[in-house]
Amino acid sequence: MLRNICRYQRQFGQVIWPFSFPQGQHVPSLSTHLQKAKYASATTERKKFYENVSISQGEGGLFEINLDKRKLKTPGGKLFTVPNEAIAIAVATEWDVQKDTLKFYTMHLTTLCNTALDNPTQRTKERMISAALKFLETDTICYRVEEPPGLVELQGNEWDPVMNWIEQRYNVVIGSSSSIMGPQIPEETKETFQQHLNSYNLWSLTGLEYVITQLKSLVLSFGLIDRHLSVEQAVVLSRLEEEYQIQRWGNVEWAHDYDMYEFTAVKRKILQD
């Protein structure tokens, strides 16, 4: 499928910028405003302009993606480089499986890598950790309904074991609440998770932030990282109420299944790479 993917090449021609903004106009210093504009103007589809995809190892041991003999660049104009071969192969595969039309909205790892490289909103590590910790206050498995009885029982049976696990694993107190405001999270708990998140680099935090946002749960995301939960289990637990409603009222033909498969596939790719 991926032609010459592991054949490292040292010499390549011009770089390639696969988005809708001006081609060949490298701006060495972009303001935050301009970077945001370029990200916003990226097309969701474009006619395919290359035949072969390969990876190469460049300066500092970083891996690059090559479309024919041209090097891929980010929307911000940087050389597209990733820290390990596994991510490089996964990203290159996203480009290789594209047909006549490039569908950028299907290239999730490419998008995440662009975000990590360009950091278009100029977010610091501290801001990313702070945003992740805010999910504790409205974490999916911290909020419990009071009715109907069937859903109340389901939440207790499925979510309580995960809550017990994370509280024991990290020696913290989280709790749950039926209040729309969520549980009151002790400061000691926040400090423990902050220290843990601080051990990750920006690349890891970028991927983790996507997982947390999609699951709407810091607890389930930590369960995935620690291999306490499989990707399938985490997705089902994050969609517990929706799955309950489906079982009770029926499935929307094809739509719910598509969402589930897409949701699961993206999480698996991020966590594996």
SSE topology sketch:
Layout: E1 15-16, H1 32-40, E2 45-47, E3 53-57, E4 63-67, E5 70-72, E6 81-82, H2 85-96, E7 101-103, H3 108-118, H4 125-134, H5 149-170, H6 187-197, H7 202-215, H8 218-225, H9 231-238, H10 240-249, H11 255-272
Parallel strand pairs: 1-5
Antiparallel strand pairs: 2-7, 3-4, 4-5, 4-6
Helix pairs in contact: 3-7, 4-7, 7-11, 8-9, 9-11
Give a brief description.
The chain is α+β, with helices and mostly antiparallel strands and about 270 residues long.
Description:
The protein is an alpha+beta fold. It has two domains: 15-118, ATP12-like; 125-272, ATP12 ATPase (ATP12-like fold). Helix content is 49%, strand content 8%. It contains eleven helices and seven strands. Strands 1, 3, 4, 5 and 6 form a five-stranded mixed beta sheet that branches. The chain has a two-stranded antiparallel sheet with strand order 2-7. A hairpin with a 5-residue loop joins β3 and β4 (63-67). α3 (108-118) packs across α7, α4 (125-134) packs parallel to α7 and α7 packs antiparallel against α11. The longest helix has 22 residues, at 149-170. The two termini are 19 Å apart. It is found in: Mitochondrion inner membrane. It holds the Pfam family ATP12. Plays a role in the assembly of the F1 component of the mitochondrial ATP synthase (ATPase).
